[in-house]
Amino acid sequence: MRQFKQVKEFILGKLEKELAPHLTYHNLLHTEDVMQAAGAMANTEHIGENEKELLLTAALFHDTGFFKKRDGHEAESCNIARNYLPLYGYSPSEIEQICNIIMATMLPQSPKNRLGEILCDADLDYLGRDDFFTLSARLFAELQAEAIVKDEEEWNREQADFIGNHHYFTQTAVNLRQKKKEEHTEVIRSKISTHIFNENR
């Protein structure tokens, strides 16, 4: 018998206590946010209870790899899932399903089934929400702390490019988030400097 509530409590506790403090975006709040979005999308997409629980388990574990590293964190998240889920009554086949869903979120996103599509859309649900700029600022601070992004100009260019190329997979996300996401993209583009730098030419 799967013990979803117990493993949820355990992993959320680990996320709260063990993630590095500079992870201002990829933290407990993000995981809870993605789980909430995935659950809501699963209901709208008429996903059965059994599959929904596997989806929510994947959402719970999808960023646990950040305990160890950023690059390749999805595969690390799967290692962590394979380590803990047998202790909570998950079968090997269920665990592999969960890992397949987690791996779909690796950028560029590549879902192979409906559950993967839902988790991908839930993971980037914020792109089309009213709290986008608040969460974007947290991600910017996190990436700056690791010297991945230099300044706001670079960040705006990267964001405009990323969001411009992004698409939602589920009809639910398209209906709920697409219009607002496009509005956010326009705001970001309006902030980008129009100067062309020729320093390296």
Describe this structure in words.
Mean pLDDT is 95; it is low at 195-201. The protein is mainly α and 201 residues long. Helix content is 64%, strand content 0%. The radius of gyration is 18 Å and the shape is globular. It contains 9 helices and no strands. The chain has helices at residues 4-18, 28-44, 49-61, 73-84, 92-103, 114-123, 132-145, 152-165, 171-191.
Query: Counting H and I runs of at least 4 residues, what is the number of helices?
Result: 9
Q: H/E element string? A: HHHHHHHHH
- The first-to-last residue Cα distance is 63 Å
Strand coverage percent: under 5%
Oligomer: single chain
Q: Biggest β-sheet: count, sense, barrel?
A: none
Count of DSSP strands: 0
Shape: globular
Radius of gyration: 18 Å
Helix vs. strand class: mainly alpha
Helix content: 55-70%
Calculate the mean pLDDT score and round it: 95
| Low-pLDDT regions | 195-201
Give a quick set of tags describing it:
about 200 residues, mainly alpha
Short account of what is shown:
The chain is mostly helical and about 200 residues long. It has 9 helices and no strands.
Task: Give the secondary structure arrangement, pairings included.
Elements: H1 4-18, H2 28-44, H3 49-61, H4 73-84, H5 92-103, H6 114-123, H7 132-145, H8 152-165, H9 171-191
Helix pairs in contact: 1-3, 2-3, 2-6, 3-5, 3-6, 4-5, 5-6, 8-9
